[in-house]
Every structure is written in structure tokens, then in C-alpha cells.
């Protein structure tokens, strides 16, 4: 069967599955809408959390980032997994014991203040929308690559699918669709990885293959070979880094703390029956996430190795069909600077910016680019980072059904995260803003209706952000982590571990952390991108890692303010005592 | 992450079992979070250059910690915590 037909088949079948599950698990009450009824098995919840967590960026971009950044990309690997240790040990069991529906619920109750609750909602909406913009863009890109529609159309189809299961099913629908989506995405990720690892090293397990010798008879290890190849072409060594130690440290920390503070991840732990299940569930989530995260470095390295081998010093006319396919999709370009008909891949950009194709073809049959060639490098090849995952099956010559599986997997990753984010936005609006702040007399039925209306509105905004994106996918995502690390995490952490933290302290901390981090990122990323170099950074910390400083500011200001204002009331001290012990979490949802 | 001195203030009505339970929890937390820090930020970033002179198979050791090892250790830490906490909860009769 044609690959394109297979893609339609796989994508169509997976959508039918998600929608079927959504209809089967339709939410009937606010409790089902917000926390799936609170009775989800911890292993199932772990799987749903993994799908929720692993976004279009994890699925599509991470292996590419690793391929092109080598050791430097370790910040993502450690950062996006290490946060689960913090979640399991520092937050999840206590939040579950607290037993309410949303993150602002906890902050509003613990800090006995409607203002604190509203500030938390603002932080949450901010974080979720910056994150979701990247997801919707991801949905659009995957659709346009695989289904031959333009990105705008792709975003709209994605919005429709998410609408069905997020609005109908609420948290309950999302939980079970996410389980299905996890299965689809992990299969799609692992199958090509097994094949590629086996083809290059005779070891089918990519985690081991990456540390093995190449099976070309040379006896060199994969990483050693890659180091040599890259250095020969003028790149940095793959296993050595270029980032400064302080920047590596801060980015990793910001991503970890950000992970632990991301509201759509935290709420997943509200859905299990007991506090001890929240701990277990975080462990399972990390197991399921680690499957993909320990495979990604192998895909990155193998992908880079194959890419160099099949392009560098290869005559364009002789190049494999994948090269021409992805050239057709604007993700690869070749500019024959020395007019020898052979592709040279070297360090540096072949030309400025993204390729602008003139629509004509050159002497070797390549698509001509209008961009002015970069005279500083002999490099002739432009390659988009996302290609390492998208084109992987083709580069390794895998059958059409693997490509089709890949398409379904990429969509599953983007849709599951988008749905999770939409849900936290809608529950915050309906539960925290309406029910708990502005319209306390609203009936349960109207609250459910409001939640659905809010989810619909959020989808429309997210779709708009996907069609007119504020920046590149991974860059936008990094934003969300800094903001989560500097605003929500400290407030929740101190709510559990510092009994004397009062409302004045928490509010001042959240606002100052958020404002500092937001201004730093906006300044370097949007207002003065030319100044975004290490010399201008505060302590040499890039905008990606600045959330750590924001977090420290949050802690510092909160503690300072709390020490000069009124003590926390007695009933709040009792509340903190009660969330610290696991007993009684089972009936906490009853109120 | 140090325990709060207010725990000893009688007005909070923390009973003895809950106080002892919380102290054991904090001790376990500090131990596990230290391992968490040493494996990721320590081995993967701060001491990476020194560790890279050793290798596991084709992996330089520091690079292995940064891209594989710390993730495996993270998983182990959470499950150790799950098991140890269950024991501590039973000991003080506070389990759910």
C-alpha cells in the first residue's frame, strides 16, 4: 500500500479510537470533569501523565536538539525528568491529601485569600497559554507534513479533535484518551529507534546501542566516531559542550523546578484515590517518560551519523529520495556554492535564515534558494532540527507503515498535551474564578456548563496562537518553565513546608518572581534579541535558565515579607498539619 | 527544607506521632534529594569533565550520567521513597 494511504489509515484509526474513548468516558459531574472522579489507578495515571507531559516538543524536537547540540542538550534530558523526583517527594502526595480540584484552589485555601487565588489563576493562565501555543503549532506542523494540508488547516483539524474529548469528557475523558495516546506515541517512537540501533550496532536496544561499537567492522564506538566526524567538519565535539557551567546548571534547574510547577502536570496527581498513590503515580509517570527520554539521545546521535554519511560529499543527483522529499517540505535545502554538484556539510549556516525557494531548479535538479550565501563557511546544506525524528524512518529506509505510525505518534503527543493544558485553563476559569471568587452561588450544573464554555474559548485562543505563533516551538515552551518555576512552585512548596508562610508573603513572592522572570525573557527574546548573548546576561544566565533566579527572588521576598507581617492563623496551621499526614485522603474529595 | 520550628509550639496541636513522622519524612527527603542533586547536577554537570576520563562501554562517564544515568537514578529514587514512606507511615499508624 502507498505510504500516504497508510498514513491516512493510521491517523484516522487513532482519531476514531480517541473519540470513541471520549464518548465512553463522558464526564457527568464537576468532580468527573475536574479530577476524573478521583479514582484513577496510579499506573494508569502515570501513563496519562506521561502522555500529558510529553509534548510535540518532546516527540518531534528533542532528538533533533540532541543531535545538533550533543552534550549541551543534556539540560533537557535531566531537566524534564528530574522534576518528577521533586513532584513525587515534595508536592504530589500533599496536594492530593489536600484534595481539591485545582492548583489555585490549594494556593487560595492555604493562603486564606481570594487575592492569592486570583494571582495563582493569572500565573496559571499565563503559563498554560505560552505552553499551548507551541503545542498547537506542533499539531499544525505534523498535519501539514503528513496529511498534505497547510498548517492553518492542520491547526483547525487539531482544534476539532481536542474539542471533542476535552469539552465532552473533561478530565475523565482526557485521562483515558491520554492512555491510548501514550501507547500510540511510544510505539511510534520506539519502533524506528529499534531498527536504526540494530542496523548500526547490531544491538536493538537504543539505550545500549548508543554506547556500543559500530558494526562496520571498524571497532569504533558510535560516540567516538561521531566526535571525530563532527570535528573533521568543523563542529564541536559531540560529547563536549559549549554552554558555560553556570548556564547548564541554571537551565537544568529551571526546567526541573518548572516541571514540578506546571499546573497541567500537578493536577494529574489530584485524580488518584490516595496520597500514597500520588507518590507511586509520579514514579510510574517517570518510568513511562524515561522510555522515550533515554531513547532520544540514541535517535539524535544515530540520526546525525546517518545524516552526515548520506549527505556530506554525496552528489546531489545520487542522493537518497528522503533528501528530496524533505527538501520538498522546506525542511532541507542545498545551495551549491562551489558548483561541483556535490553536497558539502560543514559547521555554520549555509545562508541566513530559513530557505526561500525561488521555484526554479538548479543544474543538479535541486530547488534553488534565493537567500544570500554565507561566505564564512563552506557549508552548503540547510537542515531543520525537527527532521531527525520526522525523517528518521525514511533515512533508515524503513517501510511505509513505520512512517504512518510516526505521523500518528506525533499527533498523539501534541494533542494529549494540548488537551491537558486546555483542561487546567477551563477548570481554573470555571472553578477558581467563577465558583470560588465571583459567583459562589452558581449551581453545579451551571459550573459544569461554564467549564465547557471556558474549554471551548480556550481552544479558540490556542488555535489562534497556533496559526499566528509568537515564536519557535521549543523557545515558547522554555518560557512556560521559567514562569512556572518562579511563580507557582515556590508558593506550593512553602505552603507545605513552611508553616509560617502567610498570605502577604506568598502573594508578594509570586508577583515578584513572575514579573522578574517575565521581563527578563521578554527583554532578551522579544525586545532586544540582538543583545541576547552571554556578555549581557545577568551572571551569564540565559533567558532559558533565568527562572532559577526568579524562584530565588520569590523565596527571598516571600520570607522577608512574611517575617514582618501577621502570623498565619491557627486553622491554617492545622490545615498544613493535616496535609502532611496521608491518613484520610480517600474522603477528602467528599466536600 | 529544614523543619519548621513552629512545630514545637503547642498551639499547632501537632501530636507526638505526627511530629515524629514528619521528622523522619524530612530526614528521608534530605537524603534522597542529596542523591538527586549529586547524580544530576554533580556528576552530569559540575564534575563532568573529570568523570569523562572514565567510560562505560562507549559512553564517557560524565556524558552517560547527563544523558542516561541520572534518569535511571531518578526512577530508583522515587520508588525507594514510595517504599520507605509506606514503612514510616505504618510505623506511626498514619497510612492511608
UniProtKB/TrEMBL annotation, chain A:
The keyword Transport applies. Keywords: Membrane, Transmembrane, Transmembrane helix, Transport. It is found in: Membrane. It is a multi-pass membrane protein. It holds the Pfam family SSF. The chain crosses the membrane at residues 6-24, 77-95, 116-134, 146-167, 179-200, 246-270, 282-308, 401-425, 446-467, 473-498, 505-526, 546-566. NCBIfam families: Na_symport_lg. Belongs to the sodium:solute symporter (SSF) (TC 2.A.21) family. This is Cation acetate symporter. GO terms for cellular component: plasma membrane. GO terms for molecular function: transmembrane transporter activity. It comes from the Bacteria.
From TrEMBL, chain B:
InterPro entries: Na_symporter_ssu. Keywords: Membrane, Transmembrane, Transmembrane helix. The chain crosses the membrane at residues 28-47, 59-83. Residues 20-94 form the Sodium symporter small subunit domain. It comes from the Bacteria. It holds the Pfam family DUF4212. The keyword Membrane applies. Signal peptide: none annotated. This is DUF4212 domain-containing protein. It comes from Parerythrobacter jejuensis.
